[in-house]
Fold this protein.
Amino acid sequence: MSAREVHDALHGWAARLVPLGAVVVTRLRTGLTWAETDEVAQRHGYDLTEEVAALWTWRDGVGARPGRAPAHLAPGQEFASLDESLRRSREYLEASRAEQRAGTAPVTAWQPHWVVAVHGHATPLVLDGSRPGPDTFRHDPQADALLVAHSTLPQRIARWHDMLDTGTWRVARDGTWDVDLSHLTHEPHTPRTEVT
């Protein structure tokens, strides 16, 4: 997966949301330069690949609007700035290390090369910055790592399109997300093949 593929997938997602009236597209911050992502990463003790940094070179998170509902990249998916994402990643790492020292380590400990891509519900969507990579997954510290679904960010975004296609996700009249799980199918997932 290349940074270009990540950007293309994210551009396609944003383009799909515009005619639906999703407020998130009006709140996306300008993306960082590669040099800016490197500077932010170094400040937090990270060495990011271009593929991992691509999320924030596309856009540097969603800006908050006081007094208004939060705007999510996908339902319940808070897309924070790189600085905030790396701060959260470091907090997860330190908490995981503290649990290990205390002998209460979770089943799946947070790794130093994991970066919070979006913070959602109870579990963050993680970009695994190990090489080769990266891939994405939901981090559940109590789940066995072999049971957690992994995919590239473009594959995950293709799944987001599927959620819109089935009506499981909709953009409400106020521009926020609405979820109707009754539209989930029991059919195995068939990945999208067309470029968006």
In short: Helices lie at 3-17, 24-27, 34-43, 50-58, 82-102, 153-166. The chain is about 35% helix and 15% strand. The mean pLDDT is 85.
